[in-house]
Amino acid sequence: MSMAAARVAERRAERLIEELLGSQGWDLRRPPHGELLSQHEYKDYPALREALETASKTGGGAGIPEYVLVEPKSGDPLAVFEAKAKATAIDQAASEAKVYAEALTKAGFKPLAVAVAGTADDTFEVRVFKRRSKSWEPVTYEGQP
């Protein structure tokens, strides 16, 4: 798959995140009217920018998650999202989401780490993780992630 094709497919996974959040009643507008920050928008929030400035999934530099769901009045992150184009990349998406969430946790926040891989018109996987003690554990429903 070419880089352009991969980016288009990943954008479809990002739209899936928006659809899933919208279906659960989250306001997808940018704060203060909504609850969702897209990619670089978190940099307008000093505490988020500082927390993620060294959270790059490849080593050095700033981390850029697909989305950060925030409490609109305080700007506190509730969840951080990472998307991948193919459902088979769920483990990679989960790993990267946890890197971002760990950086936010070290800054004193308590976000969930959410990984979405695949697209709604194909197949997709969603994994949600919560920090417990010193590790990220999957949130389960009836025993399933």
Describe the structure.
A six-stranded mixed β-sheet has the order 1-2-3-4-5-6. The protein has helices at 3-23, 46-52, 90-106, and strands at 36-38, 67-70, 77-84, 112-118, 124-132, 135-138. The mean pLDDT is 88. It is of the alpha+beta class and 145 residues long. A hairpin with a 2-residue loop joins β5 (124-132) and β6 (135-138).
Helices, strands, pairings?
Blueprint: H1 3-23, E1 36-38, H2 46-52, E2 67-70, E3 77-84, H3 90-106, E4 112-118, E5 124-132, E6 135-138
Parallel strand pairs: 3-4
Antiparallel strand pairs: 1-2, 2-3, 4-5, 5-6
Give the low-confidence spans.
Answer: none
End-to-end separation? 29 Å
The level of helicity is 25-40%
Q: What is the element string, with H for helices and E for strands?
A: HEHEEHEEE
Number of DSSP strand runs = 6
Backbone CA Rg: 14 Å
- Strand % is 15-25%
Main sheet characteristics: 6 strands, mixed
Mean pLDDT: 88
Judged by helices, strands and strand pairing, the structural class is: alpha+beta
Morphology: globular
How are the strands of the largest sheet arranged? 1-2-3-4-5-6
Q: Classify the oligomer.
A: single chain
Count up the helices. 3
